[in-house]
Amino acid sequence: MIAKIILLVVFFATMIGVGIYSRNRTKSVNDFVLGGRSVGPWLTAFAYGTSYFSAVVFVGYAGQFGFKYGLSSTWIGIGNALIGSLLAWVILGRRTRIMSKHFESKTMPDYFGKRYDSNALRIVASIISFIFLIPYTASVYNGLSRLFGMAFDIPYVVCVIVMATLTCVYIVLGGYMATAINDFIQGIIMIGGIIVVIAAVLTGKGGFMNAVMQLSEIPSDVPATMGQSGAFASFFGTDPLNLLGVVLLTSLGTWGLPQMIHKFYAIKDEKSVRTGTIISTLFAIIVSGGCYFLGGFGRLFDTDAIHSASGSVIYDAIIPSMLSTLPDILVGVVIVLVLSASMSTLSSLVLTSSSTLTLDFLKDNIIKNMSEKKQLFVMRILLVFFVVISVVIALDPPTFIAQLMGISWGALAGAFLAPFLYGLYWKGVTKAAVWASFICGVGITVSNMFLHFIASPINAGAIAMIAGLIVVPIVSLITPKMDQRTVEEIFDCYEERVVVEMKEALPDEE
């Protein structure tokens, strides 16, 4: 217990120390929200990765989908690395940095407002962001609390309040730069922690080969296997189609999430894009791939502790139950690992939400002539307000973490992914198409919450994203186009010529 407490005290002191250090570098709105657009590749890549993976993945998704699909759940981690990280950086990274700098935009809603010349789109996008980031935040608290309860027997309420307070303090002090530096520290902890935990858990089951053999011997009469023998140790697992839905939502979904895209706004230069792409992808392979790989062995720890009184599986209890068998010092490492993942994601969510509400909703719409100093003050106040709201909701959350995340990602990515992606590349996207995507993404997600016409909120989110990618080009082809001169001026930012050293690019001709 002493070792676990020491680890936590050192961790918390470091986070607050970084906040105090970063305070002197946060003089303007641009510094607070984007770190002055001067964040290097390592900080940006780790900020992206740590915002991506939290207790939702480690406790909720890894537990639920590892139990359902066995070792094939590792495909989710591979999809996160290749689609959610590698392709996201390659396809969105550079163009997002160029166009957001051209617009001098600091948020995704501001991008929509300036790209499609519509203040109404900006306001509605900011409202959608604020509303649907809250359930995701609540899910982060929920996952963390289960591990704290296991390790320290601390009440859920105390866990939530302490975590929220500490995160709030360092963001209020240092803004995006404090978040990025802490994300780097937390990311290193996550990489080391997941490797140690996997090794310890498999060693406890007699090693990797023995654990796989035990997994393959689970009887084929278990309902999830649909009669397949050795399904939980197989390549595609028990249910490949539903597994694909999870891969799509958790991988492609990042392309439309404000807190993820925000990282590309702050990239320093071309070298940072290239290096950041590699680092972010490797980070995702280790952390996400490792989490789902570990979760794939969940059925080897099927005890009464993970079942409710009615006999149903409590998915969020699987990983904590698995880790409860580890030595105390390793439990301490796990606590810091998940705390790192959770606080990094929480900081990204609250910073995105407060800046969006201030810059895109209040500024010039509700509060006229908002000075730089007042913007910073309001953002800090709203940041605290957002944390308080998310804490209140987290104290009485829905049953499963994955449902919360599915609702949040489904609505946000379903509404934003298509108009954001197409808007970076295609001049023909219309305002009506953007409105259609907003309605489609939010409409499918919210209506499914009440009508349940799609059984899984995860699949509902994946369908909402795919629907947006189809709806936007169709509506754009049949609705009035934007002013051609305005569109050409927007895309001129890509045509600006830059001079680089020959080691960066070969000349067109000798």
Mean pLDDT: 84
Helical content (DSSP H or I, runs of 4+)? over 70%
Counted up, domains total 1
Strand content: under 5%
Report the principal-axis shape.
globular
Q: Note the main sheet.
A: none
Task: Specify the CATH homologous superfamily.
Answer: Sodium/glucose cotransporter
CATH topology: the name is Sodium/glucose cotransporter
Helix- and strand-based class?
mainly alpha
β-strand number = 0
Could you characterize what this model shows?
There is one protein chain. The chain has a single domain (2-397), classed as Up-down Bundle (Sodium/glucose cotransporter), CATH 1.20.1730. It is 73% helix and 0% strand. The protein contains 19 helices and no strands. The chain has helices spanning 2-23, 29-34, 41-52, 55-69, 74-103, 108-115, 119-152, 156-204, 208-216, 240-252, 258-265, 270-295, 318-323, 328-362, 372-394, 401-425, 431-451, 457-478, 484-491.
Which short descriptors sum up this protein?
19 helices; 73% helix
